[in-house]
User: Which sequence fits this backbone?
C-alpha cells in the first residue's frame, strides 16, 4: 500500500514543485483533489457517464480553474498564498456540495471501470520486468549520451567506474522493487503513472525554455522580466499544469479510497509542500529538482504509513505531521543561510 | 572645497594596525601577508582591481571573517584583537558603510540610525529622545535631513549619509567606506567628500575604498594599493597621481583610457519623439526626443533622478505609462509593449543594478547567458543543450569571462565578470540597439577598458548604443553625441567636440 500512497503524494508534490519554483505556492490542492475526484465520481455514479469521459471533464475543469487562479495571482497581483487559501475553502465547500455530503463510489456496484482501476490494477509479473528492462535501457542510453556530450564540451566527466556503479546500484534498486512488488501483486498502475508524471516534469523543468523560466522567475523576478521572460504567461502555465496534476491525483486518491467522501484530500497540500521542501525545494523559489521531490515524498509517505502500521493514535499522527513540516521548512531556511 | 590635509594634531596616533594578514579560501589566496596601518583622523584610500582583496580585508576588519579563519594580527589602539562577529568589531569602534545599503526603507531616518540601539524608557521605546538625538546628530554634521523622513523616499546619496550617521551614532572611531559613491551623482559625491573631510577634524579615521581614483586622490591622506591579494605599496596622496596609482593597481600602464573609435553613422535605429511618460499618475519624463544611428554611441547624461534609467526602462517596456510621443526601433513603433516584445524587435537593456535587474546569482554562468535567447535553441519545445553550450562558450570566450567554466555559479564571480555575464546575456539576443545603463559601475579599471572595447566592437558591427553614465569623463570619452536630461526633460545636446564638464553640468541643472 505504501507504493500507492507514495504515488499519490509524489504526483501531487511534483505538481506543487512547478509553482514553488517560480516562488509561488498552492494551498488549495488538497481540497482540489477532493473536488475533482468528486466531480468525476458523481458523473460516473449518478449520471452514468463513461469513466474516461467523466475524468476528461474533471481534467479540463481543473486546468481551467487553476489557470484562472494563476491569472488572478499575476494579473491582479494578489499573493498566491491568499488566492489559494481562499481556493482551499471554496473548493472544500464546492466538493461537499457536489457529493451532497454523502459517499459516492467511483464505479457502480461490482462493475469496474478505468477510474477504479487507477489504484487497483497491478501490472502482471512479466509486464513489470518488461517495464524494468525498458527503463534500464533508456537510462543507460541517456547516461552514455550525456557523458559523451560533456566530454565533447570539455566538462569534467565522472570516472566511468563510478558511473557504472551508480547505474548498477540504481538498476539493482529497480530490480529489487520489481521483485518485491511482483512477490506481492505486481507493480501498481499508479506507480507507473507517477513514473510518467515524474519523467514529464523532469523534461519540462530541465529541458524546455518554460522550465528554465520557472527557475529564473524564482531566483530573481525583476531580472527575469527585463530579460524578456513573459512572467505572467509562465506562471499561469505553471498553475495550469498543476491543475492537471491535481485532477490526476484526485482520481487516484478517490479511487484509492474507493469512493468520494468528505475527507478525501484533507491536508494533502501540506504533505505535498513538505515533500518538496524535504527534497530541497526552496519556498522562496528558484531551487528544486524532481529527484529531490521524489525522495521527499518517499520520506513523507514512509513516515505516515509507518505510523499507521504501528497503530499510532491519530492525535499523534497529526502532531508528527506538523513537526515534520516545521523541520522541513527549518531545513530550507538553514540551507538558504549557507 | 576645503579638504585640506594639514592642521591635524591627532594624526600621529596609530589607531589600527594589520600585520602579515593572510586569508585563504579553497584554491585561492585572497590576502597574502598584507600589512598596513591607520592613523587617527586620517582618510586612508584603499585601491585595487576587483579581486585584489579589498573586500576580504574589510571583512576581516569588520569581524565577518572571524578571528581564527585568517593568519596574522590585527591591532586596535596597540592591542591585539580577535573579532568573532560584527558586534565585536562594532564594540571596538569599527563600522562598515557598505556598497549595498543596509537600511530599512519603510522606517524613518531616526529609526534607522538607532536600529538595534533604540533609546528606551523602561521596556518601551523613547520616541521623543530618538528623534531629538537624531536631529542633534544631524545638526552636528551639518546635514539637512529630516529625522522623520522615510528612508525609501530619500535619494541614494542621502541614504548613504544616513548610513554614515548611523555608524557615528554608535561612537565608531573607524569607518570603512566601501564604494560609497558608486551610486552618487557629482554633486552628491562632493557633499559626501566634504563630510568625510569633516570627520577628519573630529579624529575619526576613514578607510575609503573606491574605483574612482580622482575622488580617492582628492580626499585621502595616504593610499594603499592592493594587487592580487598583496599590499603593493602605501603612497602619500599628496605626492602621487592617478597614473602612478593605476600603474600599481594593474602592474602596467593604461595608455588610452577611453579608446572610442568613431565610425560614420548609418541609418537611424532608435528614434524617440516627443516622449512623455507617467508613473503612478506623476509625469516623470516630458517631451523627450532623440535618435541613435547605426554605429553610433549616444551618451545619456544627467544627475541622479533626472530620469535616465526610467527613460531606458520605458523604451524597453518595463516602466510607466506613455502619455504621448513615439518610440521607434528600426522603423517599427513600440507602444504598450513588454520587455519580451522589445527584445524581439532587437532592443536590449543592461541595467545599472546588475544584481537586482540583471543576474540570477544562484545559477550558473551558462544559465544566465542563454536565458534571454532560449528561443534560438528550442526545437520542438525542447532545448538543444549541445547548441546552447556551444553558443554560451563563444560568448564566454569572447567576453573573456574569468571563471573555471560556464558551470560556475554567477554569485561567486567578481563585479567585472558578473557585468560581462549580463552583457553576454544581452548580446546573445542579437540586438540592433543596446541600452547600457552605467555599464562600468563598481567594476575595476581593467574590466572598464574591456567594456569600452566591447562598445567599439558593437558600433563597428553597425549596432546602435545608448550609454548612460554618471562619470562625466566616461560619458564624454565614449559618446559620439550626448543628450543631457534634467528633471525628466532634455536639458542640452552636445557633440563630442563641444562638450565640457562645465557645460554638461549646466545642462543637467537646466530645469531644476
Assistant:
Amino acid at each position: 500500500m505504501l507504493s500507492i500512497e507514495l504515488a499519490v503524494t509524489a504526483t501531487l508534490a511534483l505538481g506543487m514543485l512547478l509553482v514553488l519554483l517560480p516562488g509561488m505556492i498552492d494551498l488549495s490542492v488538497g481540497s482540489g483533489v477532493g473536488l475533482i475526484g468528486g466531480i468525476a465520481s458523481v458523473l460516473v455514479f449518478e449520471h452514468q457517464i463513461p469513466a474516461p469521459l467523466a475524468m476528461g471533464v474533471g481534467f479540463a475543469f481543473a486546468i481551467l480553474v487553476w489557470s484562472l487562479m494563476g491569472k488572478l495571482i499575476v494579473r491582479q497581483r494578489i499573493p498566491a498564498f491568499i488566492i489559494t487559501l481562499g481556493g482551499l475553502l471554496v473548493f472544500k465547500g464546492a466538493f461537499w456540495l457536489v457529493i451532497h455530503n454523502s459517499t459516492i463510489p467511483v464505479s457502480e456496484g461490482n462493475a469496474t471501470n478505468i477510474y477504479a482501476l487507477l489504484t487497483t490494477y497491478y501490472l502482471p509479473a512479466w509486464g513489470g520486468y518488461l517495464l524494468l528492462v525498458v527503463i534500464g535501457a533508456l537510462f543507460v542510453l541517456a547516461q552514455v549520451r550525456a557523458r559523451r556530450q560533456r566530454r565533447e564540451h570539455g566538462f569534467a566527466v565522472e570516472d566511468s567506474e563510478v558511473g557504472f556503479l551508480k547505474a548498477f546500484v540504481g538498476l539493482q534498486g529497480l530490480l529489487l522493487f520489481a521483485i518485491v512488488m511482483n512477490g506481492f501483486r505486481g507493480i501498481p498502475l499508479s506507480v507507473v503513472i507517477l513514473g510518467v508524471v515524474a519523467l514529464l516534469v523532469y523534461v519540462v523543468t530541465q529541458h524546455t525554455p518554460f522550465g528554465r523560466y520557472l527557475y529564473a522567475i524564482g531566483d530573481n523576478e525583476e531580472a527575469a522580466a527585463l530579460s524578456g521572460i513573459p512572467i505572467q504567461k509562465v506562471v499561469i502555465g505553471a498553475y495550469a499544469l498543476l491543475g492537471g496534476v491535481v485532477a490526476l491525483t484526485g482520481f487516484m486518491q478517490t479511487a484509492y479510497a474507493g469512493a468520494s467522501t468528505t475527507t478525501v484530500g484533507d491536508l494533502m497540500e501540506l504533505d505535498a509542500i513538505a515533500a518538496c521542501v524535504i527534497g530541497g525545494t526552496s519556498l522562496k523559489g528558484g531551487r528544486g529538482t524532481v529527484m529531490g521531490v521524489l525522495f521527499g515524498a518517499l520520506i513523507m509517505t514512509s513516515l505516515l504509513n509507518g505510523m499507521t502500521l504501528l497503530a499510532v493514535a491519530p492525535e499523534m499522527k497529526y502532531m508528527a505531521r506538523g513537526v515534520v513540516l516545521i523541520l522541513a521548512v527549518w531545513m530550507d531556511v538553514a540551507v538558504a543561510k549557507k | 572645497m576645503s579638504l585640506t590635509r594639514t592642521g591635524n594634531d591627532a594624526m600621529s596616533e596609530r589607531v589600527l594596525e594589520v600585520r602579515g594578514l593572510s586569508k585563504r579560501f579553497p584554491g585561492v589566496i585572497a590576502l597574502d601577508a598584507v600589512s598596513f596601518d591607520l592613523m587617527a583622523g586620517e582618510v586612508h584610500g584603499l585601491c585595487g582591481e576587483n579581486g585584489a582583496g579589498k573586500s576580504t580585508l574589510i571583512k576581516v576588519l569588520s569581524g565577518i571573517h572571524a578571528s581564527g579563519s585568517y593568519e596574522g594580527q590585527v591591532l586596535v589602539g596597540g592591542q591585539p584583537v580577535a573579532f568573532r562577529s560584527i558586534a565585536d568589531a562594532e564594540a571596538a569602534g569599527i563600522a562598515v558603510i557598505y556598497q549595498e545599503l543596509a537600511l530599512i526603507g519603510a522606517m524613518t531616518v531616526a529609526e534607522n540610525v538607532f536600529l538595534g540601539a533604540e533609546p528606551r524608557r523602561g521596556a518601551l521605546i523613547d520616541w521623543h529622545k530618538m528623534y531629538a538625538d537624531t536631529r542633534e546628530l544631524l545638526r552636528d554634521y551639518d546635514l539637512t535631513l529630516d529625522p522623520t523622513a522615510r528612508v525609501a523616499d530619500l535619494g541614494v546619496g542621502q541614504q548613504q549619509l544616513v548610513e554614515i550617521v548611523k555608524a557615528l551614532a554608535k561612537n565608531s572611531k573607524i569607518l570603512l567606506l566601501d564604494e560609497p559613491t558608486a551610486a552618487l551623482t557629482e554633486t552628491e559625491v562632493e557633499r559626501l567628500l566634504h563630510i568625510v573631510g569633516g570627520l577628519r577634524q573630529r579624529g575619526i579615521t576613514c578607510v575609503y575604498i573606491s574605483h574612482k581614483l580622482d575622488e580617492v586622490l582628492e580626499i585621502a591622506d595616504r593610499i594603499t594599493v592592493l594587487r592580487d591579494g598583496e599590499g603593493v605599496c602605501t603612497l602619500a596622496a599628496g605626492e602621487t597621481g592617478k597614473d602612478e596609482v593605476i600603474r600599481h593597481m594593474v602592474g602596467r600602464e593604461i595608455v588610452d583610457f577611453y579608446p572610442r573609435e568613431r565610425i560614420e553613422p548609418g541609418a537611424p535605429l532608435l528614434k524617440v519623439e516627443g516622449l512623455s511618460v507617467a508613473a503612478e499618475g506623476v509625469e516623470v519624463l516630458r517631451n523627450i526626443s532623440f535618435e541613435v544611428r547605426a554605429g553610433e554611441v549616444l551618451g545619456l547624461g544627467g544627475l541622479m533622478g533626472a530620469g535616465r534609467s526610467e527613460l531606458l526602462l520605458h523604451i524597453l517596456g518595463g516602466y510607466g505609462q506613455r502619455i504621448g510621443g513615439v518610440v521607434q526601433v528600426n522603423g517599427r513603433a513600440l507602444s504598450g509593449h513588454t520587455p519580451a516584445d522589445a527584445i524581439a524587435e532587437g532592443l536590449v537593456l543592461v541595467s545599472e543594478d546588475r544584481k537586482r535587474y540583471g543576474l540570477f546569482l544562484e545559477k550558473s554562468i551558462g544559465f544566465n547567458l542563454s536565458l534571454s535567447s532560449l528561443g534560438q535553441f528550442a526545437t520542438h519545445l525542447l532545448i538543444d543543450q549541445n547548441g546552447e553550450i556551444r553558443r554560451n562558450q563563444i560568448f564566454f570566450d569572447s567576453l573573456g569571462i574569468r571563471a573555471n567554466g560556464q558551470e560556475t555559479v554567477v554569485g561567486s564571480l567578481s563585479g567585472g565578470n558578473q557585468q560581462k555575464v549580463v552583457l553576454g546575456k544581452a548580446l546573445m539576443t542579437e540586438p540592433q540597439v543596446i541600452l547600457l545603463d552605467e555599464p562600468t559601475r563598481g567594476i575595476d579599471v581593467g574590466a572598464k577598458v574591456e567594456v569600452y572595447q566591447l562598445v567599439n566592437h558593437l558600433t563597428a558591427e553597425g549596432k546602435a548604443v545608448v550609454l548612460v553614465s554618471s562619470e562625466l569623463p566616461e560619458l564624454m570619452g565614449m559618446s559620439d553625441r550626448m543628450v543631457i536630461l534634467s528633471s525628466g526633460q532634455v536639458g542640452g545636446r552636445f557633440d563630442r567636440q563641444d562638450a565640457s564638464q562645465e557645460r554638461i553640468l549646466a545642462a543637467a541643472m537646466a530645469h531644476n
